[in-house]
Amino acid sequence: MPQIVVTIDGKTYRMACAEGEEHHLEALAADVDGKIAELRKSFGEIGDLRLTVMAAIMASDQLHEARARIAELEAQRDADGASVKASEAGGESARRDFAQSLDETAASLEKIAAKLAAGVE
């Protein structure tokens, strides 16, 4: 199992990860480091533990918002899918009605043609 060293808030940590996940873990650590730096800039020296907890809450809030957005998009996708199915069903009905109308028009034209042919003879 690969091990990497990351730096968060000036402190280094050795971490293990799955093969091929090294860059992903480094990016996550950099994101946490950035959040802590942002909080430190905004609030000053308020304690390492407090900054870490605040950064974790910020990350959790972002995750919560992303999950809510995903659920919203999935619901919209499902509604759109139902709408498309209803539209397709309505389209099929319209095609059947149009075909029936064409059949009726063709039958009427055949009757007219037959009357004209009978009148000519």
Unreliable segments of 5+ consecutive residues: none
Number of domains: 1
Strand composition percent: 5-15%
What is the share of helical residues?
over 70%
Strand order of the largest sheet: 1-2
Q: What is the count of DSSP helices, taking H or I runs of 4+ residues?
A: 2
Number of strands: 2
SSE pattern: EEHH
- End-to-end separation: 97 Å
Cα-atom radius of gyration? 34 Å
The structural class is mainly alpha
Mean pLDDT: 88
Largest sheet: 2 strands, antiparallel
Estimate the global geometry from the Cα principal axes. rod-shaped
Organism: Jiella mangrovi
Subunit structure: Homodimer. Interacts with FtsZ.
Keywords: Cell cycle, Cell division, Cytoplasm, Septation
Region (Disordered): 74-98
Explain what the structure shows.
With 121 residues, the chain is mostly helical. The protein has one domain (3-87). Helices cover 79% and strands 10% of the residues. It contains two helices and two strands, in the order ββαα. The chain has helices at residues 22-43, 48-120; strands at residues 3-8, 11-16. The chain has a two-stranded antiparallel sheet with strand order 1-2. α1 crosses α2. The longest helix is centred in the C-terminal third of the chain and has 73 residues, at 48-120. The protein is rod-shaped. Pfam families: ZapA (PF05164). This is Cell division protein ZapA. It comes from Jiella mangrovi. Residues 74-98 are annotated as: Disordered. Homodimer. Interacts with FtsZ.
